[in-house]
Amino acid sequence: MPELPEVETCLRGIAPHLRGRRILRLEARERRLRWPVTPQIDAAVAGQPIEALQRRAKYLLLDLPSGSLILHLGMSGSLRVLPAETPPGPHDHIDLMLDDGKCLRLRDPRRFGSLHWAASPATDHPLLTQLGPEPVSPGFDGGHLHRRSAGRRAPVKTFIMDSRIVVGVGNIYASESLYRAGIHPQRPAGRISRTRYDRLATSIKAVLAAAIAEGGTTLRDFVQEDGNPGYFARELRVYGREGEPCPSCGHPIRQRRIGQRSSFYCARCQR
DNA sequence: CCGGACGCCTGTCGGC
DNA sequence: TGCCGACAGGCGTCCG
Questions:
Q1: For strand B, is any atom closer than 7 Å to the CB of A21?
Q2: What topology does CATH give the domain A4-129?
Q3: Pairwise CA distance, residues A90 & A80, whole Å
Q4: Between chain A's N and C termini, which has fewer beta carbons within 10 Å?
Q5: Is the pLDDT of residue A53 over 80?
Q6: CATH class for the region spanning A142-265
């Protein structure tokens, strides 16, 4: 489910409820997520105060005095802060019991999400060391994309979804960014000019920022912390719109699979 | 190193 | 109505 805007929305939703709180204990009803949720994690977080929350790529980091809890929502994960006694649903796998009678509850039907423990700093964890720059940061721009794309023959859509190049751009926002930049998703990454990469970097920043402002994109089941959907779905110009007229030229939006992921584009506006 | 394919899971939807 | 395959917002791993 979640790309960067949805994870950021999630962070903003839960942060006010978690700041200054202490974790009493971790309660697991299902430990078989992407990786097993080990009892070692339970032991590490029990009794610890939450000192800070942050996002890195699509990971949420809960910083505790002795390290960080690293949380990933996978394809179908979501988080709510609820009264501790709220009965769990069938896919409510993990609760972090808090010291104010509430709990942070992870729901994840497909179980592609994960929980890790990192002795500080979290950025040294193997899952985080290879990550590229945050897209909404000065370190990310067209020059970066242009340099990293040299010699690459893979489609540009695959290229910008590679977290070693830039983090947080998932399947929806990759299609949307390329559409707004006028670049065909299948064009080899190494055959795009610096000028066009400038446009692409600008598009990525703008699309992600706009999506965050709308609380993310709800296609099926994504909900914000308060249970409301994200409203960026109505701003999508190509994703999920196969056969509909291109908002710019009226040509029908096309769909095809690129790198095992469905991709949407306008064959007339994107070259 | 790079690029492509696969697998992990469950739920939903469209076609027959 | 029921079944069955395809597909879904991610990503680590393996293979050539």
A1: no
A2: N-terminal domain of MutM-like DNA repair proteins (3.20.190)
A3: 15
A4: C
A5: yes
A6: mainly alpha
